Input
Amino acid sequence: MVEAISQSFQLLAAEAEGGWDVIIIGGGMVGATAALGLAEQNFKVLLLEQFEPDLAWSDQQPFQVRVSALTRASENILKALGVWQGIESRRCHAFTDMHVWESISDAQVHFSAADIHQPNLGHVVENAVIQAALWERLLKHPLVTLCIGEQVVDLKLTSKWAEVVLKSGGTLKSRLVVGADGAASKTRQLAGIELTSHDYQQCAVVGCVETELSHQNTCWQRYQADGPFAFLAMADNHSSIAWYLPIDKMQWALSLSDEAFAEAITEASAAKLGQVIKVGERAAFPLIRRHANTYIQPHLVLIGDAAHTVHPQAGQGVNLGLLDAAALIDTLTYARQQTPEKDWSRRSVLRRYERWRRGDNVIVQRSMEGFDWLFQQDQTVKNTLRSQILPLADQAAPIKHWLMSQVLKGRDVLPSLAQ
Ligand SMILES: Cc1cc2nc3c(=O)[nH]c(=O)nc-3n(C[C@H](O)[C@H](O)[C@H](O)COP(=O)(O)OP(=O)(O)OC[C@H]3O[C@@H](n4cnc5c(N)ncnc54)[C@H](O)[C@@H]3O)c2cc1C
Output
């Protein structure tokens, strides 16, 4: 790893004058996917990441705090880029069922992969595993230059190209800059793109726990007065948890002793998997919906959390980001093939990417709002509505099948990598 990075720095010095086709800022799951996919289409890519990813791996290492439930569309993207093998060889867990119920009436809906003749409904994977598998491929790619430990301090967007000014003092030039630097994106700020946001006044407490009973390869989600609680199935009797609480309970949840935390989770899950017998490291994240008012500027686009964040209760954030990356790859490749005499990073091309992705991202954000509204347990009308809707939905096979295929495969016209 270290050797490859220092080679990259030599490359960086050698090519600083020449410029790259694309500079990607942020080498998380989404930025790394975009970098690999664009390089596979013969774009010359520079990937800037402020932190060195940890590529060391041992089967014995404890489960990481951050995980993602990946849809089939995401799995397809990572398979097409030759990354899935690196994920499977480390650690990931397929879940076949999903069980949603609510605390007041105990009304429930059960989704099963068998009902739609699929092997599973998705995979739960540690974020660090996804990033490591991506970087393993990036390190070997001849068209990718990795620049680690560097930050962007300024951007200059001209009518012909973009210039990225680095903290260390250098300036890099490219046809296109891709902001993939997460929810607090510096790229977005430097490009002067405003956000529309909504603070849920909620936090998600996450971590990995071991339970007395098997999760049966099922993801369990219980709606209760404070917010939902979820178990995401991992190896053996281990599950990743997502416990949504009012923001003023965040410090309380983090400060509990392991024993008290295990007890609190057992209670929040109504002991669905018996007692929680062991808890690992935990972390908490305040939840904010954000949407960039535009995804594009001259010679610049935003992807992933830099462009949008959604409430994580349906586990869609990184799945949307990977679709952004795949749609951008399709859009730029098509523009370059169809009109080779024109600039593939021109505004009309970038607009095509934005139109493709914005609608899909808005639908998911709004659906989360709908869930949030329906599951607020402070109003009798909604309580009654839920106790009637959930059993109805559970019995309406066509609705369940449609919902499962939407979540599994994605809602919009899928980019080619995702098909
Ligand atoms: C509690 C919780 C649970 C979630 N569960 C799910 C789930 O089950 N399924 C799902 O699909 N999504 C889930 N999400 C959402 C998902 O985690 C995010 O959507 C995803 O991490 C976004 O990836 P990204 O690559 O866009 O951004 P990030 O993961 O934030 O990566 C950004 C990268 O950019 C780098 N960076 C930042 N600033 C700079 C800079 N100035 N210069 C250079 N590099 C920089 C960072 O170091 C980082 O590596 C969840 C989110 C939360 C909070």
